[in-house]
Amino acid sequence: MYTRRVAEVEPLTNWAGNIAFRARQVLRPHSIDEVRDLVAKAPKLRVLGSGHSFNRLADTEGDLLSLAGLPRIVEIGPDRRTVRVDGGIRYGELAARLHAEGLALHNMASLPHISVAGAVATATHGSGVRHGNLATAVAGVELVRADGELVSLARGDAGFPGSVAALGALGAVVALTLDVQPTFELRQYVYENLPATSVRDHLDELLADGYSVSLFTRWTSADVDQVWLKRTEPRTGATLFGATLADGPRHPVPGMPAENCTRQGGVPGPWHERLPHFRMEFTPSSGEELQSEWHVPRVHARDALAAVAKIRERVAAVLQVCEVRTIAADDLWLSPNFERDSLALHFTWIADTEAVLPVVADLEQLLGPFGARPHLGKIFTTAPVDGYPRLADFTALVDRFDPAGKFRNEFLDRLLG
Question: Is the pLDDT of residue 289 over 80?
Fold first, then answer.
């Protein structure tokens, strides 16, 4: 038996608990053949990853399909430049297994707890001016389309750029092939109290000062509370553009224990133990939260930050912390970074939807003139259809793979029209 009736247990929710799924049942196959059979028979279906979306992207009134029970696949290519993984594996597990083989991914998100397929589907990202989002590592996609057929697409195939960050609209992704590289070490430093004048005058230099750089602010002042700097080489000096080196480990969310976070203080360690902000064995971030994120062209970075500062007090009143990161341009049709280097403004809100939504709407209005694109797995109120030049091509691809709309839901209907 590989199904579980939602009605027989407590209501199934997303990770944050702000979304209660309306599905009739959760299907839990243990093989790709079972996935094909279940997909072919289901009238309506959505794939559920690790539940880290904050909106109804994964919701359905049909069935939910969890791929967590699929056999783990970590198949390293003969040239050791790729790895093939199953559709249920999480980054934390994959990263440890790759490192043991002397290999690495180009980047990771702040949380190692998320599923690879789910993160790729929503163009989730890490940070670094030279690094694309996690989906840019995908060299091949294997998915079960609506009729139960197993289909493979590879980089270079027609439609491939629309099949990667595809929001689960094409089918159930049962395997991915990812680019890998030799393993490497990183050092992580945390600096505090970066002056607003440094953000204004040295933002580009600051964001390029490491392999991965994150700025954390609570918008209680014009200054930045923390700078998280991840470097391949050691950094000397107790200051960074006016910020001072922290005297011990820190957590980006005030009041949360620093032991939940990855090793700091410039101590070298494996890439997968430094690139995420949070350790796999602890609750990620704060747990009780909502999240929103908008990506703007990096050329508008200073202006976008200045726009947020106009409503700093309103933002701070419902905010836990805001993280500012960079992502390199890509060619993926539904990526927020499509054809432009981006600055991402990520907001971790308090767990109060009613209080947060008006501020989200205000931010959308302020950031809209800069061409802001939301992270489609987080909370937003206006879908910027005009912000995706290849949206019509993506819609045509969806219609070809799923002509009856088996994998569509209200969220996708609003986005695709």
Answer: yes
CA distance 328 to 124: 13
C-beta of residue 6 within 8 angstroms of C-beta of residue 12: yes
Cβ atoms of 385 and 354 closer than 8 Å: no
The CATH class of 74-183 is alpha beta
User: How does DSSP assign 163-184, residue by residue?
Assistant: HSS-TT-S-EEEEEEEE-EE--
**Per-residue model confidence as pLDDT tens digits over 92-112:** 999 999 999 999 999 999 999
Quickly count: other Cβ atoms within 10 Å of residue 288's Cβ: 12
Check if 74-183 and 185-382 are the same fold.
Answer: no
Sketch the domain layout of the chain as residue ranges: 74-183, 185-382
- Alpha-carbon span 225 to 123, nearest angstrom: 27
> For residue 232, which of 275, 184, 273, 296 has the smallest C-alpha distance?
184
Q: What percent of the chain has pLDDT over 90?
A: 90
Of 140, 143, 138, nearest to 180 by C-alpha is 138
**Does 11 have pLDDT greater than 80?**
no
How far apart are alpha carbons 127 and 112 in whole angstroms?
14
CATH architecture of 185-382: 2-Layer Sandwich (3.30)
pTM of the predicted structure, to 2 decimals: 0.95
